[in-house]
Amino acid sequence: FLVIWVFSEMEKLIACVYKRPDALCRLICFPWAGSGTSQLAQWGKLLNNSIEVLCIRLPGREIRLNEPFAKDMTSIVNEVTSVLLKELKEKPFAFFGHSFGSYVSFAVALNLKKKYGLEPVQLFISAAHAPHSEAILSIKSTAISDVKDEDVLAYLQSLEGTPPDLLLNEDTRKHLLLTFREDLRVLQTFSFEKAEMDTPFTCDITCFNGSDDKPHDLHGWQEITSGDTSFYELPGGHFYLLEPSNESFLIKHITRCIESA
After folding, report:
1. What is the pLDDT of residues 156-177, one digit of tens each?
2. 99 catalytically annotated
3. Is residue 4 part of a domain?
4. What is the SS3 assignment for the chain?
5. Which of 35, 99, 102, 105 is catalytic?
6. Identified catalytic residue from 98, 129, 216, 238
7. Which end of the chain has fewer CB atoms < 10 Å from its terminal CB, N or C?
8. Does the annotation mark 216 as catalytic?
9. How many independent structural domains does the chain possess?
10. Where is the Thioesterase domain (predicted)?
11. Does the residue 2 lie in any domain?
């Protein structure tokens, strides 16, 4: 017989593997381009009981596989804001984003601040240029449809964040390439003009980067908050955070920052 799963808006958008209703604060994680929630949602078991980890699941992957991909950054921002608003109002929250996820987390934070006067207690940014950096322009000017699949694949393999066995299966590989392209397309629809507003945030911002990754314009992040901005370089490439020792450093540092905030 047919079993039809009906997921609530919250269950579709959020992976929360380790529920902690009594936690004092929530850490909301935004994954990198082409990925789902499997990696960052596991942080829930590594952080202490005072922090509950929620990981954002975008359309087109995991239990949302049959949904159309998001067309632009605005639609993602609107979904995250509308689904999570009640939760974000009820207790303090922090955002962590890696690469593409950093831009999504920033866009969501900006919307929350503009519309509701809400902001995270801390923004944790990983492997991402400041949102108003000229370095983003090269990403925006790439005609994604002109880039061949094998070039995208070679790029993903060079980053070393995709398990090689995932790429062996043709269907999985095709879906990964499609998801990555769609996420990149979303990123191209995002723009932030620093001149349009005063310093948007008052929270502290921590920026992480891999020592062997390409350099990111991290220092521009200082210009978007009146809070403190700190920078950490950890050994490794673009996916330095998948190394257990680096993950352990991130967990400890994030915990300390949230608790002191």
Report:
1. 888 877 777 777 888 888 998 9
2. yes
3. no
4. CCCCCCCCHHHHHEECCCCCCCCCEEEEEECCCCCCCCCHHHHHHCCCCCEEEEEECCCCCHHHCCCCCCCCHHHHHHHHHHHHHHHHHHCCEEEEEECHHHHHHHHHHHHHHHHHCCCCCEEEEECCCCCCCHHHHHHHHCCHHHCCHHHHHHHHHHHCCCCHHHHHCHHHHHHHHHHHHHHHHHHHCCCCCHHHCCCCECCEEEEEEECCCCCCCCHHHHHHECCCEEEEEECCCCCHHHCHHHHHHHHHHHHHHHHHC
5. 99
6. 238
7. N
8. no
9. 1
10. 26-255
11. no
